[in-house]
Here is the input.
Amino acid sequence: MKIDEIYKYVESRLKGEGTGHDYFHALRVENVATMIANNEGGNIEIIKVSALLHDVIDRKVCDDIEVETKNIEKLLLDCKFTKEEIILIFDIINNISYSKGNVPNSLEGKIVQDADRLDALGMIGIARTFAYGGKKNRPLYDENNNANSLYHFDEKLFKLINLMNTETGRKYAKNRNEKLKYFYDEFMKEWNSIDLL
Ligand code: ADP
Ligand code: NI
Here is the structure.
């Protein structure tokens, strides 16, 4: 298959990443994006490759975006993707991030964006949020300072369910969003020790 080399490349780039954007995140996004595509359609190979590569040129994990962009272009050409396919893949990975506030144009991109967002929800989304906060030396919670991990739930995570692009993504997000809400409420009860009353 064309994409074997891509797994190796992504693993080499994201290995040891400590903020929840590691190789296993890329593999989960690939897997969930494929599940969504089974319902929604789209070109599976483009979806898998874009899911695997989606965080490699993120500022959080890469120092020189220009160099990394060239590396990816060469890799995709070596893997026999056409110029048109490469343009499509870059449109996806350049527009997927929540912070940029964009939506990729293609169905494939919308599916990968949904899969990335699903990994920010649920039990793993919770784990990733606190891993990120720990790496940045932030406290779990601080009512007087927004630079804390729990604040990320209000700032971003609870908004994601309304930003899903596909029906299937929205359906998957419901259950994971419920888990977030449950965690948040129980966390606050324990914070104030009222769970023990
Ligand atoms: P995107 O790649 O969509 O722009 P981010 O890379 O900002 O999203 O976030 C991906 C995940 O990293 C979040 O869902 C969360 O788990 C963690 N994360 C990012 N920013 C923060 C933050 N400020 N506090 C806690 N966790 C964060
Ligand atoms: Ni991601």
